[in-house]
Each structure stands twice: as C-alpha cells, then as structure tokens.
Amino acid sequence: MAVDMKTIEHLCGLSKLSYDEKGMEKVMGEMSDIIDLMDEIKGFDLTYDDTKDNNEIRFCDTREDIPEKSFDTQKLLQNAENTDNCYVVPKVVE
Amino acid sequence: MNFTKAKIRDLRKMLDSGEISAKELCGEYFKNIDEKDESLLSYITVTKDEALKSAEKAQKMIDEKQAKALTGIPLAIKDNICTDGIKTTCASKMLGDFVPPYNASVIEKLNEQGYVLLGKTSMDEFAMGGSTQTSAFKKTKNPYDLERVPGGSSGGSAAAVSASLAPAALGSDTGGSIRQPSSFCGVTGIKPTYGRVSRYGLVAFASSLDQIGPIANDAHDCAILLNAVCGYDRHDATSARIDVPDFTEKLGQPIKGMKIALPKEFYSDAIDGCVKDAVLSAAKELEKQGAVLEECSMPGLKYAIPAYYLIACAEAASNLSRFDGIKYGFRGEGRTFNDLIIDSRNKGFGEEVKRRILLGNYALSSGYYDAYYKKALALKQEIIKEYNEIFEKCDVILTPTAPTPAYKIGAQDNDPVKMYTADICTVTVNIAGLPGISTTCGYEKDSGLPIGMSIIGKRFDEQTILQTADAWEQGFTPVAPEF
C-alpha cells in the first residue's frame, strides 16, 4: 500500500473529512492506487524553476483599493442555513 | 419546420424575418425538453418562467431592429456558472439549494445580447469526472445510446445540444470537460485560451486550469457564441487584456499550406484502433484540402496524467475548503465548530470530490510537496516548452479527443485510476493554457457512436482552430442521434 492508515487519518484532518472504520479501509485502498499512479511522476527528472512559472499567463494589474458598493447583506445571507442578520455557528467559547 | 434542428445563425435569420418569435422558439425547445429529458436527464433546472420573460424582452429588441447575434437565442448553461436568482448546484448536495446573489461575467455578457436561458445543465459534481455519473442529481445519458455515458464533466450541456434540447450551451473545461463530452455526444466544443473568457462567477475547481467555453452543433456556432462571451473582465485577475477578434472571420478560408502537427505519443496503443483510424483519416482529408501534415513528438505526455491530477487536486483542495456549511451550502450537525464543518463536508460532498480533496492535500502536505506538487509544476513548464517547440514549425496540432468512444454507464465505477487515465488526450491543453476544439470526425462502425478529434492552437489563436474545424466540417456529414 502506497499510503497507510496514519497518513489517511492525517489527510482527513487536513481535509475536514472523516470516515467510519469500513470507509477508512476502502479509501486507503483507493488512495493507494491513485498515489501509485501519481508516483509515475518520479520518473521525470527535472527541477522546478519558480522564476519561469506562469510566465506565459498575463496577470492583470490589481485594481485600485477604492471602496465601492458591494452586495446587499440580506442577499448574501439568503443562502445561510441559520441567520439572524449574521452567520450563526455553534458556541465556540462555553 | 423543426426549428430545434437549426443552427444559431439560421435561427437568427428566422427571428429577424419574423418566421418565428423569440417566445415561440423557446417554447419549441421546452416542448422537446418536456418530451425527452425525462430519459436523457440533461437539465438539473429548467427555467421556463424566466425564459418567457427574457423572450419578451428579446422580441422587443428584435422588433426595434436592435437585435444582436444572440438576441432571442435560447441557450443552456452548465450548472457551475452562477446565475443571479437561479439555483446553481454544481451537481452537488453541498450546493443543492444554493441561489447565487450575482451573475457570472459570461451571463452578464449574454444578458446584454438578450439571450434566453433554457436551464442549467447537469455535470459531474464540481466538474470532477468525465462521465456526468458523479452528479448528485441527474446522471445524464448519451443520446446516441442511453446505456452509455455522455462524457463529462459538461455532459449535460453536450447531451442537450446533441439531442436538440438546446441549440448551444456553455460548459467549462479544466482537463477536457468541454471537449470530451462534445466528442462522446457528436457535437463541437471549444476550450478557449486561459484568460480569454472571464472565470468570475464560475465555481472554481482548479483556478489555473478552468476555462468557460461554448458547445454547439458546429464550429461556426461555437465562434458566434465565443464572440459573445470573450473579453477582459476587471473581476478576474487572470482575464487577458488582449484584443478580441471576430472569431467567425477566418471561417470558410482555405487551409492550403496550413501545417498540422501529429504528435506520435497521441496515437499510441492506449488509443482505440477505431479512434486512431478516424482521426488519421480526417488528417488525410485535411491534407487533400492543401494542409501539410508533420509528424512530431511530445515526450512529456507520458507524465501528463499525474502532473494534471496533482495540480488540479491541489487547487481543488484549496478552493473547496470554502464549503464549510456556515456561509452557504449544505449544513450538517455538530456540537462544536469543527464537528459542524466535518459533518457538513462528509454529507455534502460525494465520494469522487472527497478523493480529490484528499489527493490535493496529500500533494501539498509537508514531506510530499517537493516530490509531487513541485514536480508537477516542473512538468507543466516542460509541457509548455514542448508545445512551443511544435508551434515553431506548425500552425495547429491534431489529436484524438478521447482514447475511446462513449463507454457503458458503470464501466469505470469504483476505478478512479481508469477514470483518470482516460483524460490523457485532453489535459495537456489545460496545463499549457492553450485553446482546443473537438469536432466529430467519424462514427464507430458497429455502434454508430461518434468519435471526436481535437485541434489545438497557439495561445490566443482560436481563429485558426475554428477555421480548421470548420474546413473539416464543410466536407463531413454528421449523423444526428435517433433519440
């Protein structure tokens, strides 16, 4: 197996995901196959030159930092599950 | 007269001459959708009420002789492109009830034209897949054979156009998601140069690779739709400040003397014999029209799949971290802040999306970053270099769009590696930020399934690939699905 259970648990923590025991076994098998495929890249011998990265993509100038009218608060909150004119989350401090 | 079989340019004439009104025209498409989409499953949301209102506005523009190229033309839009007040789900339970508070820039541009929205089309969840079978809502089928996939991720858009449930549609392409479903469904789709079309309002999968583009019945209709959606946008920092030509300008011009490159690695044993034969036979036809065929090599293709998946998934892991169930999207349960986020993501995302998030975080995590992510970036530079070398000698590159015609539903289930390797013909175009168009070049002998070929162009040279695809299509008789 290209990855072990400890690595999968670590990745789940980074990804804010979780699986039950059976799910962990399944995803470990799938991720091992996928990482075996990704390992093919190790056969390629070249060093990354970060001075050349994206040199063919034209990034435009950032715009001036001038305040302008943005979205209506109510409209932005229309998709939040639980609102009281703000985003409501579980208590963080008891 | 069956209006739904007509091309955009013919519909324009019919609308302007009064042969049909904008309201009647969208009614014809809704009739088709009502009759056929129950079995095709190409639309997630059908927008009849909004369409009738837009059609009335469009008719006013037509009556006042103010019509533009797309005034009154009905279109389908992939469900990852934000539409103000209309559900945009990304085919995910996570965004099942999400109603965007704004329009994507491409939608604003289409609104200026007076287009009519027919509905939002199905796709692989968050555009992650090549079959439209990871959709949480509508697992679209192929109009040529309902037991087969339409391709993906823009499978709903391609199937809808192929089955005459829309004259054209917008899709998005991160690793082939416009071109491969176009190939499977026998239509034409173009992925523009990175930066040509604004990504503002496109729900991000992999920001350095994503690009919105048209799917239509032929290259000419793609050019018309591309004319409408291109251009610089201040809301997208990667939007190119570059003049937008008329993409219909070179259509119909002869391709005599055009140099077409055939990289040998794209014609390996990994490609089905029927696909190779069809693409090489099309190359010979183009040669008869005066094009010059040049064999060349692209060694970097060998590593293209891991390079693409490492870059795309790393960006996806970052982009999809915003889905926490708090500001918008599916909300799970949990007594603590962390539990709430984990439960929302566990229940909101499908299995393929979760796999890609895990892979992305693996590639970016401490101890693996240099070996995987940085190596993938090095390969990106190498692939760009190899394309540049080919384009020093040639005008366009011709390749198959997919290794096989459309496969049976379920054939790649539970086998992510098989699914990923099937993207081999398309991903390098996104890695290098180039434009590519897929058009039908033949049909599989026994099944009658369409086979697509891709024409890849120089950066910002969509005109030449449209010209080449159009030159091929002029001598080709497409076979519509019997569906």
| Helical coverage of chain A, percent range | 25-40%
Share of residues in strands of chain B: 5-15%
Order of helices and strands of chain A: HHH
Instruction: Let me know the CATH homologous superfamily of the domain at 3-256 in chain B.
Output: Amidase signature (AS) domain
**Helix-strand makeup class of chain B:** alpha/beta
How many domains of chain A? 1
Overall pLDDT metric of chain B: 97
* Estimated share of beta-strand residues of chain A: under 5%
CATH topology of the domain at 3-256 in chain B: Amidase signature (AS) enzymes
Uncertain runs of chain B? none
CATH level-two architecture of the domain at 3-256 in chain B: Alpha-Beta Complex
Give an account of the 3D structure.
The complex is a heterodimer of chains A (94) and B (483). Chain A is mainly alpha-helical and 94 residues long. Chain A has one domain (1-68). Chain A is built from three helices and no strands. Chain A is flat and about 50 Å long. The mean pLDDT of chain A is 85. With 483 residues, chain B is of the alpha/beta class. Chain B has a domain at 3-256: Amidase signature (AS) enzymes (Alpha-Beta Complex). Chain B has helices at 8-17, 22-40, 48-63, 105-113, 155-162, 179-185, 219-229, 273-288, 304-319, 337-348, 351-364, 369-393, 416-421, 427-432, 462-474; strands at 43-46, 74-78, 116-121, 168-172, 188-191, 212-216, 259-263, 292-296, 396-400, 436-443, 450-457. Chain B has an eleven-stranded mixed sheet with strand order 1-3-2-4-6-5-10-11-9-7-8, sandwiched between helices. In chain B, helix 5 runs parallel beside helix 6 and helix 9 (304-319) packs across helix 11. The longest helix of chain B is centred in the last third of the chain and has 25 residues, at 369-393. Classes of the chains: A mainly alpha (94), B alpha/beta (483). Chains A and B meet through helix 1 and helix 2 of A and helix 9, helix 10, helix 11, helix 12 and helix 13 of B.
